[in-house]
Specification:
13 strands, Isoleucyl-tRNA Synthetase, Domain 1
Amino acid sequence: MNKYVADVVKELFNQEVEVVLTRPEAQFGDYATNVAMQLAKQLGKTPREIAELIANKLRENADFSEVSVDGPGFINIRVSAHHIAKVLADGWNEKYGENNDGAGKTVVVEYPSPNMAKPYSVGHLRPGNQGWAIRQLMVATGWTVITDNHLGDYGAPFGIWVVGFQRFSNDEALQNDGVYELGRVYIATKKALKDEAESGEHELADAVQEWLLKLEQGDEEAKSYSKRFNDISLAHIHAVMNRLRISTDHELGEAFFAPKGKAAIKTLLDSGIAVKNDDGSIIVPLDEYGFDVPLLVQKSNGAALYATSDLATILYREEHWHPDRVIYCVGAEQQFYFSQLFAMAKKLGITTELVHVWFGTIDQISEEGTREKMSSRKGVVLMEELLDAAEEKARLVVGGRDVSQSDVEKITLGAIKFTDFVADRRTNILFDWDSIFALTGYSGPYVQYAAVRVNKLLSDANVQPKEFEASYDYASEKSVLMKLQEYPSVIQLSARDLEPHKIASYLYLLAREMNRYYETTRVIDEAADVQAARLGVLAKVAQVFEHGLNILGIEVPTKM
């Protein structure tokens, strides 16, 4: 439509202009443009005069049911529902909404990167959800996508687990409780380290460092401990990721990159980017990027740091994957670190676009009725506990109806995941059991239920949906058709801004339009041609529901 209005301007005034159409309040029309105001100066006419000329020309097109001029020169346009349906049918395909904006480009998306040797926590719900959704958005916009679960399977925590296991645990406990025993050991050891520090002792702390250095030096016993703990952790992580319906192509963690860290540091030193201090520590000054504090890449005792591993990761990806963009899905608390890391990469000559996609915390309502960060002290913190509790809530939603276990799991994930996308990812979200499972309002089950109703109508009908019925006016379906038209631009903007919540918002509004449609319009009990036309619209709605929810990692249940 933008092009059509632009062509009218060209025909009337011989002017090339970019026409912007906006959505005004419903009483004014379907679309509005201020193009007349853009032209007033060069044409030497009032905007109102220009608008009237353009409006008169537009009225010649039968696809526009109403064209009016308002105020100083706004042009309001109503499009016939019949025309919208025809345009949709002509442009429809099985990948409706997708585009090729990223064609020929490669993106690496890093998520969920949970802690090793600890139970998978709720704190990694958002990295997994947001990372998966961004992966799906990149695929939908033509990028070649590589995903990597960057595991924290190396570094200082390793020494804590070894010392803690030797002091506070045993083989039988580890065999019986797996990663949960490792989590208990970690907490006990951290407390012991704190108590030791307060007493002025350092025996335990020295032992932790000793084991870390042993691992870095390739000690066989240290490597055996590392493999044992990591195998237990990975089995647990994979089980939880399977329940969350997320996956990655690679799992190249810190243990993989740590040996490459020495070469990365040598690259920094050889290029003059890094500086070696008198105590043996190595830093990268970043003054030119506005950082007063340099980035420490190696300790004085030769021990590597996160920055060492992350630099090696960047260099490895550059060499092997040649990405145009790398997206790190990591919480807000790491903003400063990533800004330093990206500055170091730029200083080294890395031209790949490095993006930190960060997000707020998950809050809950405390026993005192106040909002607080979800914690193990007063709420569910372990992912498996959250999923188990959510599944029980989902069973209450479906009541005694004949709903399969598979559908219960879909409703469970729909509720949990949609909550993550109810607002901009940068905001803290409130996890409230009552609202996330509501069948009314802004929730995953609300959208899923609308999709289930659409699918049921399609399955119950004895008439085949028709792409476009020339004899039908589509007046009853106009609001739904208008919403369907928006979907490609929603995907485009969501992918451009790396903001999956825009998909969630769109799906909620589509569900709301469908519920209004159900209340006012019959489908099954109408004449065959009317049924076919209406079912054709519903088939498109069903496709968009499935496609949009799939981007968010949510499935449509068979029954609810």
